[in-house]
């Protein structure tokens, strides 16, 4: 099984290392050709407006959106959550628009407001998951076909919709492989 990692900006190496721990082959995605033969795609954190512009510049926006609409599993973390969303509060930046959600960028505040916390994510078992939030977004609204997997203070921080998974935090910055393994289950059934 081969999983792509959008390699335009962000924690590419960390996602790659996490998938390698799980025995999965990875491909750095920098062009539409890199999408061929992939079973899934990870959209790492970074700066969402910059990544959106790079997706347009490298002609990846529509091919990734098309793959997602056709059912390719896509996992977005932080910036990836923003790019997956159909609506971004007070922004018209480029996005994939695959997930029936509305997100707020930098929703917890500036860099100084970044934080870490152990949070319960029932689909991952009884042990809390250590979450790392860096200038994190959150989902402010979601259609009924979106399932909230982690809600904190009425904010959706982890959600899925069919083949899509979106996290406001950075699971790749921990040693816990459970969320990446959960994404792989979307692929293998």
3D structure, described in words:
The chain is an alpha/beta fold. Helices cover 24% and strands 32% of the residues. The chain is built from five helices and twelve strands. The strands form three sheets. A seven-stranded mixed sheet has the order 2-1-3-4-12-11-10. A three-stranded mixed sheet has the order 5-6-9. A hairpin with a 2-residue loop joins strand 10 (147-152) and strand 11.
Helix content: 10-25%
Mean residue pLDDT: 94
Number of helices: 5
- Within the largest sheet, what's the order of strands? 2-1-3-4-12-11-10
Largest sheet: 7 strands, mixed
Order of helices and strands: EHEEHHEHEEEEEEEEH
Structural class: alpha/beta
**CA-to-CA gap between the ends?**
13 Å
Radius of gyration: 15 Å
> What's the overall geometry?
globular
What distinguishing features does this structure have?
single chain, alpha/beta, 5 helices, globular
Briefly characterize the structure.
It is built from five helices and twelve strands. The protein has 189 residues and is α/β, with parallel strands linked by helices.
Task: List the topology elements.
Blueprint: E1 2-6, H1 12-21, E2 25-29, E3 40-43, H2 48-57, H3 61-69, E4 74-77, H4 79-84, E5 85-88, E6 99-104, E7 115-119, E8 129-133, E9 138-142, E10 147-152, E11 155-161, E12 164-167, H5 178-188
Parallel strand pairs: 1-2, 1-3, 3-4, 4-12, 5-6
Antiparallel strand pairs: 6-9, 7-8, 10-11, 11-12
């Amino acid at each position: 099984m081969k999983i792509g990692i959008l390699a335009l900006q962000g924690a590419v190496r960390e996602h790659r290392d996490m998938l390698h721990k799980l025995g999965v082959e990875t491909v750095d995605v920098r062009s539409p050709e890199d999408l061929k033969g992939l079973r899934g795609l990870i959209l790492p954190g970074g700066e969402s407006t910059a990544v959106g512009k790079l997706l347009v510049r490298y002609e990846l926006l529509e091919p990734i959106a098309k793959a997602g609409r056709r059912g390719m599993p896509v996992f977005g973390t932080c910036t990836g959550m923003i790019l997956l969303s159909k609506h971004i509060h007070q922004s018209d930046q480029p996005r994939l628009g695959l997930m029936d959600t509305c997100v707020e960028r930098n929703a917890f505040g500036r860099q100084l407001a970044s934080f870490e916390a152990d949070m319960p994510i029932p689909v991952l078992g009884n042990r809390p998951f250590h979450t790392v939030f860096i200038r994190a977004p959150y989902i402010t609204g979601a259609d009924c076909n979106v399932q909230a997997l982690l809600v904190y203070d009425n904010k959706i921080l982890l959600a899925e919709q069919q083949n899509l998974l979106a996290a406001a935090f950075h699971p790749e910055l921990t040693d816990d492989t459970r969320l990446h393994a959960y994404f792989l289950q979307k692929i293998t059934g």
